[in-house]
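At this stage, I put together a protein sequence along with its fold in token form, as given directly below:
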Amino acid sequence: MKICCIGCGYVGLVAGICLADMGNDVICIDVDMAKIQNLQHGIIPIYEPGLKDMLNRNAREKRIVFSTNLKEGIQKSKVIFIAVGTPPDAHNCADTSAIFSVAKDIGRYINGYKVIVNKSTAPIGTLEKIGKIIQSTQSKPVKYDLVSNPEFMREGEAIKDFTNPDRIVIGVQNDKAKNIMTSIYSGISRTDKPIMFTDIRSAELIKYASNAMLATRISFMNEMAQLCEKVGGDIKEIAKGIGLDSRIGHRFLQAGVGYGGSCFPKDVKALVQIMKANDVDAKILTAVDEVNEQQKRSLIHKIKKLVPVLKGKCIAIWGLAFKPKTDDMREAPSISIIRQLQKEGAKITAFDPEAQETAKKILKDVTYCNDPYSTIAGCDALVIVTEWNEFRDLDLKKVKRLLRLPNIIDGRNMYNPQEMEKLGFNYLCVGRKC
């Protein structure tokens, strides 16, 4: 299948490379010339385990090329994936301007039947608007079909999620488009992990509803963690106890410093706005967002329990990305925490295995270090914000020697409180008896 992926951001790039790896001929289009030139030389703009090797393999086999020539990409392809960004606007609604700009170009350049697939997260009804724009910009009527195919890739696990998904959601209008999409995905669908065909609007809503549900679970557990700290419960035991209920399951029950990233914060806020626009009171999701913002702020109170006066003190931060296995800093809790500390007059040293170059563009007046140990040398406290695996098995006796004061505030519950106490740390975590 000849496929065009428009947009070489996270979704478009991963989708394009994975589609090529499945045997399709893929052309990836982006307006950013520097990004395209880098991709042509095998340099990817994101950190995603395994993606560079997959790109190099498919580039050698000539199954994937990168270009800024949108006209060529549209006209040479049978299926066109739209995978451009939809960042939040000033009102927390998804900004669909890039999608509609692409739709205009498709209308101008379309030269025969195409299946036009929206993979960008966008409000319900976006695909219908795409169709109207394409019709209005065509020089002569050309047939096409519209498809909604939301993505469910987790950063750090994107290749696995694309090639071995829980489900593939496809919103279609007719059997012709359904058959073409089936031929693309048939190689990775399974009996227990099916292609799920729906109407277009349901497919658009499934993406928002999925992320909102997962965000709700996280905020619920963070509220339970606050209760545990008041009454003496252990959030780890509670998560295990309720997760063993087959109706609930164990996923996304970890308390911490709040969720971040490119999807959950944006999609929860956008869904709230969609609901309000349709006269639906978004009580639950409004609370989910409020709890998450509160949780990001909560760590400063724990830090001040151990370091009451932060002015002039040195605080070390382990972890900057919003989650492990990515360099993504979008809505990362570390941003809020560091800025709160700086407002209190603290000096910040920080380390992250992948996100430091991204962080330097966002966070100023931070001393970035090359490893976890050098980050904490002479510091008054260590704050753990991202649960990178390399932080789990460090020499904690060495950590204690390097810190000026043995204060650790663990925002991800990485360590055992009893063991930390035996080692002589002043240790605070989230929702546990510390």
About this structure: The CA atoms of residues 258 and 292 lie 5 Å apart. The first strand starts at residue 2 and ends at 6. DSSP finds 17 helices and 14 strands in the chain. The mean pLDDT is 96.
